[in-house]
Design goal:
about 375 residues, four-stranded mixed sheet, four-stranded antiparallel sheet, AcylCoA_DH/oxidase_NM_dom_sf, oxidoreductase, Acyl-CoA_Oxase/DH_mid-dom_sf, flavoprotein, AcylCoA_DH/ox_N
Length: about 375
């Protein structure tokens, strides 16, 4: 386990070097090469990769403080850590020998893989409209994806499409698609409210031909491939929300100590203290839920509902926390000179990553009702 980055050094990179690059990231909507290289240098891309593939082999629980630390800086930084430490999982589990060879390159930053599920005209699960139709010994793919993170610079795209002509929603298949595939259109012009530098893009393909060697997993196994990433991803994103909440609380507390009204710092005001206390309680509660889900994930348990429970709470938590942090800052917080302005925008991306609040509620409610039905029948 030698070589694992010290947590304090890791946090200093994201709140120091990456934070210093924030104005450039906001202006250009791209992550500077120095930041990408620096993240590789400190091992940010290989924290959880197996040691056999050049990684540090951290468990999900061990990863949590690193995700929190990365999330305390600009949103693009935490996305680097979040994606690289999760996207290798379905590739290693479902990929063929050539596809599994990509995993070690993810850890060094030499290969970037984008996860492609969301569609503008459909949901993100069984009702996908992208179609994969057999064509001899290969496939023809038609459809589109949108809001695909890091599509501006990804080398490979893990894309899920409907593959059964009779009942599309009953059969999904995953593919690992090279960037230079003929007919693969990548339109990286989607601008977002926050999370600048994460290269969100449209993907468009109409009769794009793929060799069957690019299939990831068995035909009809696409939902399993996607969920194998999504369960990790929802836990990981929840940890990032906890980290960003910590940053928002820190900014609010320090501002409250500096800002004075009527000759006294606003930190002395009971209303401000109540806001800070509520923020502290919310963040700590979220951290506990995330850890519980991560522990179950590391034990190999089924965690879909637990991961959605953590994300459901944490996305509401980060909304409340950043709202209160902005209120503590008063009018200054609404100016771009205040870090909380960017933090507030970045936080809103969590509303949509790996499923909305309503999707998490649906997943959790199904688990609650299933458990209740089992108790009723016992």
């Amino acid at each position: 386990m030698a070589g694992i980055p010290e947590l304090n050094d890791f946090r200093a990179f994201f709140t120091g070097e990456v934070e210093a690059a924030a104005p450039e990231i906001e202006r250009t909507d791209r992550i500077p090469p120095t930041v990408l290289d620096g993240a590789a240098r400190i091992g940010a891309y290989r924290l959880t990769l197996p040691e056999s593939h050049g990684g540090f082999g951290l468990s999900t629980v061990e990863l949590l403080p690193y995700l929190e630390a990365a999330a305390m800086g600009p949103g693009a930084g935490r996305m680097l850590v979040h994606l690289s430490n999760g996207i290798w999982r379905p590739i290693l589990r479902y990929g063929n020998e050539r596809q599994r060879g990509i995993v070690s390159r993810i850890g060094t930053g030499d290969a970037v893989v984008a996860f492609c599920l969301t569609e503008a005209t459909a949901g993100t699960g069984r009702d996908l409209r992208s179609r994969a139709v057999r064509d001899g010994d290969g496939w023809l793919l038609t459809g589109e994806k949108h809001l695909i993170t890091f599509a501006d610079r990804a080398d490979w795209f893990l894309l899920v499409a409907a593959s059964d002509e009779r009942a599309a929603k009953d059969s999904l298949t995953a593919f690992l698609i090279p960037r230079d595939t003929p007919g693969f259109g990548i339109d990286a012009t989607q601008r977002t409210m926050g999370l600048h530098g994460t290269g969100h893009a449209w993907l468009r393909y109409d009769g794009m031909r793929l060799d069957d060697a690019h299939r990831l997993g068995a035909v009809g196994e696409g939902l399993d491939v996607g969920l194998y990433f999504l369960d990790y991803s929802r836990i990981s994103l929840s940890a990032c929300m906890v980290g960003l909440g910590e940053r928002a609380l820190d900014e609010a507390a320090r501002f409250a100590l500096r800002r004075a009204t009527f000759g006294r710092p606003i930190a002395d005001r009971q209303a401000i203290q109540a806001h800070l206390a509520d923020m502290r309680a919310d963040i700590d509660a979220g951290r506990g839920l995330v850890r519980r889900a991560a522990e179950a994930f590391d034990r190999g348990e089924e965690v879909t509902a637990a991961a959605s429970t953590a994300k459901l709470f944490c996305l509401n938590m980060i909304g409340r926390v950043t709202d209160l942090a902005l209120r503590v800052h008063g009018g200054f917080g609404y100016s771009v000179a205040a870090p909380i302005e960017r933090i507030y925008r970045d936080a809103r991306g969590f509303w949509f990553e790996e499923g909305t609040q309503e999707i998490q509620q649906l997943v959790v409610a199904r688990k609650v009702l299933t458990d209740a039905a089992q108790k009723e029948g016992s």
